[in-house]
Write a structure and sequence with these properties.
Elements lengths: L8 E8 L3 H12 L5 E3 L13 E2 L8 E2 H14 L3 E3 L3 E5 L5 E5 L4 E9 L3 E3 L5 H5 L5 E2 L2 H4 L7 E5 L3 H11 L4 E5 L9 H8 L4 E4 L2 E9 L3 E9 L5 E5 L2 E4 L3 E3 L10 E2 L3 E2 L13 E3 L11 H30 L1
Parallel strand pairs: 1-2, 1-8, 2-5, 8-21, 10-17, 11-12, 11-17, 12-13
Antiparallel strand pairs: 3-4, 6-7, 7-8, 9-18, 14-15, 15-16, 19-20
Helix pairs in contact: 1-2, 1-7, 5-6
Length: about 325
């Protein structure tokens, strides 16, 4: 028997991704009566689901990352968003309506698309790193540095991200050791100058992380480091290890279809979420290589929904005028 393909389903506004940007876009789009569909993706809730304490979300003194995402999902559903547990495998932006093909086999046609697919921190790939994520291992100093006030921490990396993280943490920690696999930094010279002039930061050259050390009760207690040239190992005490070797935006769906820069971040038009394809908007970490905060992602989600509403209204007006 010939394979039966599912009948495409239509939505005025398709939101791809379910972090703060996606859920906020969904709330605003639903309140604008766009009847949005949100496809959650492989990791519903995004990066906040692997974060423990969240203390920088306005109006909530302290919460858990996964709990915040549960609340945001519930909010999106409550105002009328169709939240779907699926994953978009292919997105065709060559003509409108745009076409999204999902892992389930479902096909969606959309008049407007909001990309909120986020980004992923690059990790070292160690088993011990995975074990202590959220318990002393972090990829975001501005998110988690507050918990290491007066403590010793390690920052792993040698580019702009690593130096910026080290400088930020130096305002909080008692000591910051910057571990780099080479004998010089790749960061901008002005950042290097600030780092070398900071008495609380000590670079450790030609070393890589061999294993992150800790206990179930205390979390991270330090790391075993290996000399990149001699192979000799040493252990260093620390309460936190910050991995700062960059981020990878989840923009594979729109590769070669939309303008990107900085290694895959989606380009938007000035103070806007409009991308190089009319009717496609980008919000959150997939377009933001600077701030990468939950609250800024949520703000961009709001912007994207408002801009999508305006775009759809203009399209409807143009179609009505053409029909007259």
């Amino acid at each position: 028997m010939p394979e039966t393909r599912p009948t495409p389903r239509h939505t005025r506004c398709l939101i791809i991704g379910s972090g703060p940007a996606g859920y906020t876009a969904a709330v605003y789009a639903a309140r604008a009566l766009l009847e949005p569909v949100l496809i959650q993706g492989i990791q519903p809730g995004g990066q906040l689901t692997i974060t423990t304490e969240v203390e920088n979300w306005p109006g909530i003194i302290e919460t858990q990352g996964p709990d915040l995402m549960v609340q945001m999902e519930a909010h999106a559903k409550a105002v009328g968003t169709d939240v779907i547990a699926d994953h978009v495998l292919k997105l065709d932006l060559s003509s409108r309506p745009f076409v999204a093909e999902c892992d389930s086999g479902d096909v969606w046609h959309a008049d407007a698309v909001i990309l909120a697919t986020g980004a992923q921190a690059r990790w070292l790939g160690l088993e011990s790193e995975e074990k202590y994520k959220g318990f002393g291992v972090s990829a975001c100093a501005t998110c988690d540095g507050f918990f290491y006030r007066g403590k010793e921490v390690l920052v792993i990396g040698g580019g702009n991200t690593a130096v910026e993280e080290a400088l930020y943490l130096a305002n909080l920690a008692s000591k910051v050791t910057l571990v780099h696999r080479r004998d010089e930094l790749r960061a901008e010279k002005i950042l290097q100058q600030r780092l070398f002039n900071n008495p609380k930061i000590e670079p450790l050259w030609d070393h890589v992380v061999d294993e992150i050390l800790g206990t179930p009760a205390d979390g991270v207690t330090g790391a075993r480091l290996k000399h990149a040239k001699t192979g000799e190992t040493r252990e260093i005490e620390a309460s936190g290890v910050f991995i700062a070797i960059g981020h990878s935006p989840a923009s594979e769906l729109v590769k070669d279809q939309i303008e990107t820069h900085m290694g895959g971040y989606v380009v938007t038009n000035g103070f806007s979420t409009q991308t190089s394809v009319p009717g496609v908007f980008a919000a959150g970490d997939v377009t933001d290589h600077i701030y990468r905060q939950a609250v800024t992602s949520a703000g961009m989600g709001c912007m994207a929904a408002l801009e999508a509403e305006k775009f759809l209204a203009e399209q409807a007006d143009a179609a009505a005028q053409a029909a007259e």
